[in-house]
Amino acid sequence: MKNRKRFGKLALTAMAVAAAALLTGCGAKKEAQTLNLFTWDGMFPQEVLSGFEEEYNIKINYTNFEYDEEMLAKLETAKGGDYDLVIADDYIIDIAVSEGLVQKLDKSALTNWGNIDPAFQGQFYDETDEYTVPYGAGIPLIVYDPALVDFEITGYEDLWNPSLKDNVALIGNYRVIDGIVLKTMGYSFNINDTAVIEEAGKKLLQLAPNVRLINDNNTQDYIISGEAAVAFLYTSQVTQAVAARPDLKVVYPKEGLGFGIMAGFIPSQAPNADAAHKFLDYILRPEISAQCFEYIGYVCTTKAAVPYMSKEAQASLSLPEGAQSGEFIMDISGEANEVHERIWTEFKAALD
Amino acid sequence: MKKHDRNGLLMSLPLYIFTLVFVLAPLCYMVILSFLKRAEVWGVVNEVTLDNYRNILTPVYLKTFSESLKLACICMIFIILVGYPFGYFMAKLPAVWKKRVSMLLMIPFWTSALIRMYGWIIIFRSNGVLDKILMALHITDEPLKLLYTYPAVIVGMVYALVPFMILAVYSSAEKMDWTLVEAARDLGASPVKAFFTVTFKLTMPGLMSGIMLTFIPSMGLFFIADILGGNKVVLVGNLIQEQLMKARNWPFAAALSVVLMLLTSVIIYLYRKAAKVKDLEGFY
To answer: In this prediction, does ipTM exceed 0.90?
Structure first.
C-alpha cells in the first residue's frame, strides 16, 4: 500500500516534469519556424542548408523521394499541403500544375529573381514563369573510355556496335532509353504513334547483347571502375565520371540531345510558403547558387552564379553550343506510354 | 468461463482492428484498383475493366511470372543443398557450440539486407576481392565479369535466405529422438539407410517449413535482382515496382500484385495439403 502511494507520487512528479517539458517544447517551436523541403536526396550541400537555418532561424525538414511519381502521389494525398517547397523534374511539374497542386510565386519576395538564366525560363511546364524557379538542367550523354573502345563514338547509333558486346551501362529511365532509339530512327522522344514505338522496340532488342547493366543510381561508378567501357549517363553522373577520370571522353550524340530541367515550386496548400520564398531567394544568391551547382553537378541555371564557380565547373556546368535545341521528354498518351513500358520490359527480359 | 471468453475477445480486439485497418482494407483497395482504368495523365478513372488482367496475359508479362518461379526453384535447390546439411550438423554440435553457431548466423541480420548486398558487389566486381584472389592464385589471368549475371543473383538470393532454412532444419533435427537412429543401426541398417528412413523423414517438417519460409520471399526479393543482376532479370516484383513508380500504371501494378498473391496462396495451399497428408499417413 505504501509502495503504491509512493509510486503514485513518483508518477505524478514524472507527469508534471513531462508536461513542463512539453509546454516549453511547444513554446520553442513557435519561435523557430520550419521549412518542409521535399526533393531527391543530396540536392544541397550541408553548408548551404545550415547557412539558411542560421541566417533565418528557420529549421529545414528535408524529406526525400526517389521518383517524381512518388512525390506527386504524396503531394496529392496531402492535397497540396504538408510540404513547403518541392524540387522535381519538368514533366511532373507540368502534371502538378494541371492538377492544381501548385501555387503562384510571390515575385516581390524573390529579390534575386533576375539572377535566373532566361534560357531556362518560359518552358512548357511553366510558360509564363509564374510557378517555378529552375534549379539545374541536364542532358543525358554518352561517356566512354578510349582505352577500352577502339573506335570513335559520335552518336547513339554507335552503342549498337558489335565490338561493345557486354560493355554498355545504361541509366534506367525507359522514356530516355526508348527515346534514344527513336532518335536514331529520326523521330521525336515524344512521338505518340504506337507503330513507330513498336518499331523502336525491335531495334532496342538488338541492343541487348551489348548491355552490361542497367541502373539509375550511381551509374557513373561502372565506367569509373572499368566495369563498362561505355555509359549513357545523366548530367550529374557525367560530371562525376569526368572529375574522377579525366581520360574519359564525353560525347554529345549527333542524332540530337535530350534535355531536362529541375525546378522548385511551392505546393498550393504549403504550410509555410513564406519560408519557401525565403529559401528560393537564398539559393538564387550568386555565391550560394555557385556552391549548390558545384555540389550537384547539374548545368547551372543561375546566370549570376557563373563567375563564382571554379574554372572547371564553369566549363562542365554550362550548356554547350546547340544544346538549347535539346528536346524535353514530355507526357505522351496513355496508350503510347503502355507500349513504351512493354518494349522496355521485353528489352530487359532479353538481357543475358 | 464465459467471462473469460469475453475478456479474451476484448484482449484480441486491437489485433482484429489492426488487421482490418492495415491488412484487409489495403487489400480490398488493391483488388478494387486492379479493376479500374488508368487515367490518361495521372491517377485512375472510375471505370471498371478487365484490361489489366488481360494485359498480364501478354507473353512478356507472363514470362516475368515464369522467370520468378524459375529463379525461386533454382534458389530453392541451392538453399536445400547448403541449408539442410548445415542445420543437421548444427543440431549435432555440443550445446556451447550450438549457441555460438546460431549467434554467428544471427549477426549478419544486425546489418540491413541492402547493405549486405552491396558487400557482394565489392566481392564480385571487376578487379574486386574475388577477382584479385583468383588472379593471385593464377586460376584466371584477367578480371572476370561476375557481377550483373544470373549466377550473381542466385548467390545473393541463397545468401539472403539460407539462414531461414538452416534454423528450420536445425529446430526439427534438434527435437529429434536420436535413439531412433541408434535403434535402426542396431537393427542392421547402414548409416545411409538409417539416415533416409529415420532422420530425413523426421526432419521433413523442418525442411518443409524451411521451403515455405524461403520460397515465398524469394518471389518478392526484387532488390537483389536489381543490385546484383544489374536489372537484367525481370521478376514480378521488379515489374510491379516499375509499373507503380515509373509507368504510373497503378491498376496494372495492382492486378499483378493480386495474381502474385493468388499464386503464393496456391503454393501455401499445396504445402498445407502435403503436410496434412504426411501427418495422417505417417512415415513408418
So the answer is: no
